[in-house]
């Protein structure tokens, strides 16, 4: 993620990538040389008064430490999700961040397709939202080695959908139920995690939201939203790799959908940094902040609890 | 439904519509005259030894009485769903039906689109089924007056999806959870029913199925299936009323989806009667029978119970 | 075609199929028995004063003889296209038909997809029509034995598009040019015909229309219209055999398009007979008549002449 | 175009944008500052031995002068199309360019959608190509003031399609016919040009190609290819601005197609410069060169001649 955000910042007309801080020297050499950035220790970067913003893209267990250091140094912070896997730690640190100086990396809110759907929803095309389907299927399961430090399916993966649900429902979940299985890789199950899940959320006013997750789709990175209201349905679909169709006596064949997050959310990652540039320059407050990270984390824990207990969790 | 099934039978080369039994004389006059059928009392029709099959399309509370009378008279029976709203009555009568002489009206199993999906599933196109989404949204809520005798959303409407789920999953549900609301018409809520629901089913082996229901879509009769396996996804979508697209600077507009069941399942209703003709002539045993009706009814009751108790129901 | 039109007439609530006249006894036996019609000689049928309409579906070289006999007997005539392959004969007979009693079988004008496009065009969705693309590709070449009596590609096949062009352009062609080849079956070329052609029509006001024809598409019966105006484009596309999509890592596959005319134009054939019923009962005058057959035949001859001379033909 | 190509070159890892030569100082200031390039006179740039390649993006009447100057200075040249509007000048200069050092800016050959179609064609998905439709509709007519120096519709606009036709047909056109009108803007007609045209090309072996052009579509930048062979059809379609669909009782609405060349061909412009980088570094010979420019220009003149004479032009 450091590569993606670093490049987007470097290419942004209102930002300059001055430093790259990374213990793995090799990894960021290209980033530095391509954008004339300097590889330094964190202290050096934070001590430089010309540095106004920091992109925290370290490993999840370092997010909070690095974000705190940056904020304490007076910088505006962009932090990758999740803030941390430990809700207690996240809550304990919350008061140290001002909302104006912390942007959380829930990139899907910046995806132009999802934004177009949200604008139509807000424009009343289907009337007030009644129910929502979020489909988030990863193309391939991560290596089993990733599972133990991942936070599990819900904190690592579903958390995006939980944030999208909050963003689109316009109302906090009142209860949720998650049914989950290990169908993709038995090793994931042995490590105590699940790889296939369906979550049903209900808000206080009775709105319903289904989240569909799998760690391995077999057909690409399936990222869809369906929103239902009294006057109709809004759907954001997948893009295909190209527009070519072959028509033969066997049917019509077209290109696969986009295979992974880097391509699928390329524009969203860029728009996210565009927003951060506005935040750094004091022209906007973060549209997605620390409190959103807390809320999504609480929901992710509720999903895990629902699976563990086999029952509905009230929020 | 009597009009639809009666016409399909009359137009079938291997069947002849001899009698129409209907207390509402006006309603079936056209059916009789169009197909040279005779309006008679039930006793007359059942006493005629040339009558080999009976289509039971009476009101739901009469299905079982009429089906039993027909079976006792030695006829082969096609019976509209549900068999009855009362599970005890349905179970009590079960032994009186031989599987060879009772076909239940779960028409969606005969829909060519859903059948094509099932064939691809069985052909292994996506590997073994892992999860399933069934979308069944009615275009408009029924009049509130229909609710009290309808059996409620689950026995009246979701029952189709519960049968589809059993048919496609190839395995019985082990537990289910339903989250439901009354968002469409408050009168439905006052009558003790719900109009918007999401059901999550889990089978013994961990397969997951989500059923999405609403009584009023605002955009037509949304009837879709999405099936997921290790190698991909199969989807059966909606048909639109025509193939015309308008492209302007405002975007691309095409025709609405089919508005209701009569058009959407026209081919399926016909194929269902084609199958009944084979059954009547002893060339096939019913592919969907009494036991399927029992199983779906049990699941429909479980949905209602889940909503009532707000918890997961083990099956 | 006799089977299709005969069945549609028999199933029409306002018509009854009384007689079938066919020298090939075997061919129409089913039609007679299914609809309780009688096989008789032409004279018998025409002498029956209760017969008000006649469907002429004989071989092309008999169309005119039969249509004249029927009209002379005071019947209203539906006649398959083309009226005849010989323009002189067609012109010579023209005065013997009153426009109220002759409907020509240009079925595409009754196709609901094409009609929906025409309605949108007339509603001004794209502004006044400027140009038009008609795609008419047959799935497979006819047997070479059919070619000598077919009238050639233009009178047999393109004639439908020439009629559609006139119907949609709302203005007569002023000149046309056809470029054609024999790419499908060399035997067709040896018989003096072509199997692949592109025709460009220009009207007096400068509207342009391209007609694309091939005798063998390899992918089904491709029947499309694209209409262009100052504010956009209207397109009528192909229907696929079902709505199922398979998504795998290799891409998205869906069903073939409809393979032939009987399925593709099923609704249009029915609507054509619906219109004939109105004509027979004096409630409508034929929307497509003898003069349209003359005009299309003149254009078909112009296409052939353009190919023969290798140049533009003024009309 | 200088902005697009200059930025793509500057962002290419194997190229560096050293100089910008532009009499209109304002226009290129941003390009220089963003990419640390220097604004100089042409002589300075060409005299610098470290400059290996030159992108000629001047006005059409300067292309040839600048390309010659660059080639004479030993540089490798990328030149925007057309080489010049005057075929005689183009032919006279041809011998001064070696094929290894001249790449012509027919960007559509580098579009990933069109390339994917070509690869499927070459892979034999539909068998040997028989016919081709090229749709190239500009969203809005250029200002009338542009017409006199544009070379007219065929040299300015259709020339892209003529190159695509040559590229895809794999065979030179043997004859062509163009039918054209002025339907968009009467001022274009008064200036002696046309704005709506259909061209039919025939190759020696009888392959047919239709090119559809209009200066104003009203619905965006319509850029499509349809290729037909014995076993089916390949089609490259338009992309829409986003994937959102609204479904209501009025139908299904989705986003407009891409509105203009900069977005539609963004990837193709980049790939074109990728190729130029390979050419500059001697790792590739230009896949599209001077001879292709000559051939397309001859065809464009033939289109104009066909319109002028109202007849077929042999090539």
From TrEMBL, chains A, B, C, D:
Q: Which Pfam families match?
A: GFO_IDH_MocA (PF01408), GFO_IDH_MocA_C (PF02894)
Q: Where is the Gfo/Idh/MocA-like oxidoreductase N-terminal domain?
A: 2-100
Q: Where is the Gfo/Idh/MocA-like oxidoreductase C-terminal domain?
A: 118-315
**What keywords sit in the KW lines?**
Oxidoreductase
Which GO CC annotations does the UniProt entry carry?
cytoplasm
Q: Which GO terms describe its biological process?
A: NADPH regeneration
Superkingdom field: Bacteria
Named from the GO MF annotations, one term is: nucleotide binding
Which family is annotated?
A: Belongs to the Gfo/Idh/MocA family.
UniProt-recorded name of the protein: Myo-inositol 2-dehydrogenase
């Amino acid at each position: 993620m450091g590569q993606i955000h670093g490049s987007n910042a470097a290419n942004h007309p209102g930002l300059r990538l001055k430093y790259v801080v990374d213990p793995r020297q090799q990894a960021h050499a290209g980033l530095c040389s391509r954008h004339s950035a300097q590889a330094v220790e964190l202290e050096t970067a934070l001590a430089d008064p010309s540095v106004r913003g920091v992109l925290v893209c370290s490993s999840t267990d370092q997010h909070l430490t690095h974000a705190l250091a940056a904020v304490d140094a007076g910088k505006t912070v962009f932090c990758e999700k999740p803030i941390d896997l430990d809700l207690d730690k996240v809550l304990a640190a919350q008061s140290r961040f001002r909302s104006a100086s912390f942007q959380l990396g829930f990139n899907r809110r910046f995806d132009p397709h999802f934004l177009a759907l949200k604008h139509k929803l807000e424009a009343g095309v289907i009337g007030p939202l009644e129910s929502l389907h979020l489909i988030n299927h990863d193309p391939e399961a991560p290596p089993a080695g990733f599972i133990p430090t991942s936070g599990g399916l819900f904190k690592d993966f579903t958390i995006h959908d939980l944030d999208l649900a909050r963003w689109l429902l316009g109302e906090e979940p009142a209860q949720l139920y998650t049914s989950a299985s290990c169908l993709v890789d038995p090793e994931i199950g042995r490590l105590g995690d699940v790889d296939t899940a369906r979550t049903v959320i209900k808000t206080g006013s009775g709105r319903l939201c289904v989240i569909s997750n799998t760690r391995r789709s077999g057909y690409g990175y399936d990222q869809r939203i369906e929103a239902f209201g009294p006057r109709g349905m809004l759907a954001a679909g997948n893009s295909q790799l190209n527009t070519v169709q072959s028509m033969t006596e066997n049917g019509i064949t077209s290109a696969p959908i986009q295979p992974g997050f880097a391509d699928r959310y390329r524009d969203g990652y860029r728009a996210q940094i565009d927003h951060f540039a506005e935040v750094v320059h004091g022209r906007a407050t973060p549209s997605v902040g620390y409190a959103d990270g807390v809320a999504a984390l609480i929901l992710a824990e509720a999903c895990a609890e629902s699976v563990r207990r086999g029952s509905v969790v009230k929020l």
